[in-house]
Amino acid sequence: MKRKFTILVGALLALSISASAQLAATLNWAHSVQGQTTSGNSPISINKLADGNYIVFSEWGSKSDAGAEYLHFDNAATSFKGGEYTGNSYCANALIQKTSPADGSILWTVYSNYGYINSGSSHVSPTADGGFVATFEARALVPAKDFNNKKLLSVVQADGNNYDIAFDTELYVGSSNTEAANVILKFDANGSIEWSRVLRSKVLTDRTNSPSLTNTSLNTLATDEDGNIYIAGNYRSELYIPKADNTTETLVCGNTAEWSGDIQTATGELFIVKLNKNGFFEKSLLTSGKSELSYIDNITYASGKIYFSGRAKKTADADVLSIDGKTINASASLQTMFYGAASTADMTVDYIKTLASVANSKGSMVIQNKNIKIADGKLYFTGSVNGGFAEEGNTEAFVSSNSTMLKGFVLKADATTGDIEASYCFADSKSVSAYYGTWIGDKIVATGFDMNAAVGHVFTVLNKETLAKEETISVCNAFGSVAMIATPLQDGNTFVVGNRGKGETATILNGSETSPLAVGSKTYWGVVYMSYALDFGTTGIEKTAVADTESAKAYNIVGQRVNPASKGITIINGRKYLNK
User: Fold this and answer.
1) Can you tell me the distance from the alpha carbon of 446 to that of 438, in angstroms, rounded to the nearest whole number?
2) 143-to-103, 177, 183 alpha-carbon distances in Å
3) Closest listed residue to residue 178, CA positions, set 211, 219, 145, 207
4) What is the largest CA-CA distance in the chain?
5) Rounded Cα distance, 509 and 516, in Å
6) CA–CA distance, 120 with 44 (Å, rounded to integer)
7) If DSSP codes are grouped into helix, strand and coil, which group holds residue 280?
8) What is the rounded average pLDDT of the residues 71-78?
9) pLDDT for 18-47, tens place per residue?
């Protein structure tokens, strides 16, 4: 059965009567963040608080060497002192800044100064009271000046006071760091911590590779209007979640008996957990059946629903894998992308959709799910893939990178049914690429990167209906190889984005010109955040991909049904097109 999104593969091109729009991105403000280490320094996310200000979240590296303990902001040393790591690597510190949307001025700063933060499993989500929830995957580093085997993390609040996460019993200590745990912190609007909860996992000491010190990946976070918290990811042993009655909810993973303990191995099972507004366990969604691996990568909340996306792989084709009775039709040979929706009232699943995986030329496939967003009743998925996606049960790809290199993708689906409506793949990228999120107006703007240094951080403008590409512009280049983008923020026509690069100066777009932004030393990685006002000016006749003859209903100007390819003026979905 052919669906609407096949227009992106074999569409007829028509000329629209309406004028096209070319993107003008005008810079509002920009900042740079740099730790004085050769590793670390990563953008994480930008969110909007209930009071209208922004929360900008990044990670920066520090060590005990003279001068390397301090954060550099806008190419100047600050008094913010990170963890004093004494080994050969660095300490990764959290940096959370409340920022004015008007001019980017910093209203207050929160940061960590003890414990290593994993930026890939650390998140922020605003709450209705003007504060926010933050999650940190943290572990204490053994080669540190002030190592304490009962202390996991220390956070400097906006008022300058430290908040420690410590235990009565000792943490499990490996050769260079302790066991990792997931810390959930509730901040008020003034940057003070109201409460904290810690999710610990069982350390597996009988592994052939080494004791498993990182056993849970908290990949994503969302909050609702009542303050409830939704966390999701992947766990590989036992996950312990505190409950309001001082007991513990224990989730037990069932597919890692043969796991070596190597954290680079893809294994474990997915979880989605609802916590109440005080951070205590309420309900969970887990898998039933056998799998080699399953993950939840992204989650978002809207109007009593959570929407999620993830990846799974079965142990054998005959195995049945499901969540709340809804089947995940995963492959046993390739990782498979799936997504779904669930009611937050009772945590029952409405639907789960699976995309068939299409292998690349080497017979493999990698999927990186970066983001999920809901707007106007549509879901937008962004990430990268080095194979392709097909309809469930089919092998013909509607998204294909035609490359073994990862290429960015955007998918659009109906939020109610989950049906895919349109897709785009950044296949013309000359290097590795990925998309991390979207701005949604009359057009779609996908933000991502092309690792080609001459391209860097990009905005790709897509047709809202078909996701056909209209243009791609570079907003930050000449900054080494840009290969990491922050989860962006859309605030009206403002798009706030961030990326990581390497160099003394980042060249960033400002309207039709470019501007240099001083970052610091070319030896170290750095992060830049940029606020853009997006505007589309008219430039003439729009070239638009329209539906094929089997799926579109076209009419002439007197209301008679015609072939969409008919010459003259046709009306499709309420819009007029001129076919020549």
Assistant:
1) 4
2) 40, 8, 22
3) 211
4) 80
5) 9
6) 8
7) coil
8) 96
9) 345 689 999 999 999 999 998 889 999 999
Instruction: Give residue-wise pLDDT tens across range 494-510.
Output: 999 999 998 899 999 99
Give the residue from 453, 372, 354, 363 showing the smallest Cα distance to 411: 372
Encoded tokens for 557: 């100007």
User: Strands across the sheet with 162-166, in order?
Assistant: 42-48, 54-62, 91-99, 106-114, 151-156, 162-166
Cα 179 from Cα 315, distance rounded (Å): 29
pTM confidence score:
0.90
Could you tell me the CA-to-CA distances from 415 to 376, 421, 444 in Å, in that order?
9, 11, 17
What pLDDT digit, counting tens, does each position of 301-358 carry? 999 999 999 999 999 988 899 999 999 999 999 999 999 999 999 999 999 999 999 9
Distance CA 477, CA 142 (A): 37
Q: What one-letter code names the amino acid at 213?
A: L
How much of the chain is in helix, strand and coil states, percent to nearest 5?
Answer: 0, 60, 40
Burial 540-577 (b: 16+ CB within 10 A, else e): eebebbbbbeeebebbeeeeeebebeeeeebbbeeeeb
Distance of alpha carbon 446 from alpha carbon 188, whole angstroms = 32
Strands 229-235 and 575-579 turn out to be unpaired
41 burial level (CB within 10 Å; 0-12, 13-18, 19+): buried
Structure tokens at 233: 């990811």
Helix (H) or strand (E) holding 366: none
Task: Say if residue 361 is exposed, middle or buried (CB neighbours under 10 Å; 0-12, 13-18, 19+).
Answer: exposed
Task: List phi, psi (to 5°) of 433.
Answer: -145, 165
Rounded Cα–Cα distance for residues 86 and 268 (Å): 33
Residue 567 has pLDDT above 70, yes or no: no
Q: What is the pLDDT of residue 11?
A: 32
CA torsion angle 16 19 7 298 (round to 10): -160
Look at 566 and 8; give whichever has higher pLDDT.
566
Structure tokens at 348: 């029952």
CATH fold of 4-548 reads: Methylamine Dehydrogenase; Chain H (2.130.10)
Q: Which amino acid is at 422?
A: A
CA dist 43 and 24 (Å) reads 24
DSSP 487: B
Q: Please, are residues 463 and 441 in contact by the beta-carbon 8 Å criterion?
A: no
Angle at 103 between CA 102 and CA 105, to 5 degrees: 115
Where in the chain are the domains? Answer: 4-548, 549-580
Q: For residues 101 and 31, give the distance between their C-alpha atoms in angstroms, rounded to a whole number.
A: 12
Q: How far apart are CA 579 and CA 541, in angstroms?
A: 12
Spatial contact of 107 and 22, defined as CB atoms under 8 Å apart: no
Residue 71 β-bridge partners: 35
The mean per-residue pLDDT over the stretch 176-191 comes to 97
When pLDDT is averaged across residues 223-227 and rounded to a whole number, the result is 98
Integer Cα distance of 107 and 211 in angstroms: 43
Query: DSSP states of 282-332 as a string?
Result: EEEEEEES--SEEEEEEEEEETTEEEEEEEEE-SSTT---EETTEE----S
Q: Which residue has tokens 């080699």? A: 292
How is residue 473 written in tokens? 């512009």
User: Chain centroid to CA 303: how far?
Assistant: 21
